[in-house]
Design a protein that fits this description.
This protein has 13 helices and 14 strands. The longest helix is centred in the N-terminal third of the chain and has 26 residues.
Amino acid sequence: MMTTRRSLLSAVAATALLAQVPHAAAQDTIKIGVLHSLSGTMAISETILKDLILMQVAELNAKGGLLGKKIEPVVVDPASNWPLFAEKARDLITREKVAAVFGCWTSVSRKSVLPVFEELNGLLFYPLEYEGEEQSKNIFYGGSVPDNKAIPAVEYLMSADGGSTKRWILEGTDYVYPRTSNKIIRAFLKSKGVADEDIRENYTPFGFSDWQTEVAAIKAFGSAGKKTAVVSTVNGDANIPFYKELGNQGIKASDIPVIAFSIGEEELKGIDNKPLVGHLAAWSYFQSVKSPENTEFIAKWRAYTKDPKRVTNDPMESAYLLFQLWAQAVAKAGSTDVEKVSKAIVGLKVKSPTGYEVTMNANHHLTKPVMIGEIKADGQFEIVYQSKPIAPKPWNPVLAENAGKN
């Protein structure tokens, strides 16, 4: 009986000790969530951002981590499924107890997770340009808004350098970012005297591939005798058949240039670029930027991926900046506490691969330049326009004015 009792007590003690091990291990690391689609229609764009975050984690851990602890990434795949983004976000915050989440690409995925982060008081670092009209205390935005991307891009196309465009085709994927951005662009065009009949607006589903009819309509709209351009907010893998069909129907950049807000070096590597030469994209970073910081950024990326031809792009640059700013804020706050980090990060600066110093503003958006690049045959961009850093205004005054009239 005594032996049995001792065995039982030993077993209970051992169980209690084992129960403490996961907790102790958790205390030895700082967990972060990586919430990007690794499958589905958006995987073509998002996978590279997962890899970029893992590169930065490895780099930071090699330097000793943060607050004396290693960073532990928890990678999940929401699979281009917008409700699944919210489910995965909730799991990362409640079960995995992550200090912050780096993720999302489309605005519909960000809109899906936003109430989760606000309810549970988590932190999301969102690296993409988006439509604006949002500002959450739980989200830090690394990309541009229409005020410091879309509008300067449209102004460039209106200028003599950009071709003096008179007719406009607003071509987008059917979700919140393209539709809201195009409301802003349409209002801006009308303020510049562009008539409704000189604006064509069209939306297609995610993953759309049957572009023949729509590209024929683009071609017809552009044959009215006025200089015409396409402003594209087509997202994900639908870009591949879209650009392929432009080439099939002989639409050259010299005739009807396309300026894309959602296609960059990563997407171009999957298609034949010859028919695309001369078409445009607007971002705040291109791999072709000439700066010592960018040379170092590209070298680090290629060394990490062990691929001397691996490309970089704008969302990577934004994700890179957000991770650097989060790490600075944690070090400054001496804590991963959401409130302390959120307070510490405002006003922090980090040197971008573009060579510019980027600041996190009190509105949780970054001051960044806008650049316009022309597609080259090798899938890179020749920068044809570059602004100074523009302070972002996430709330568009035109939309606010119109809302007040309703």
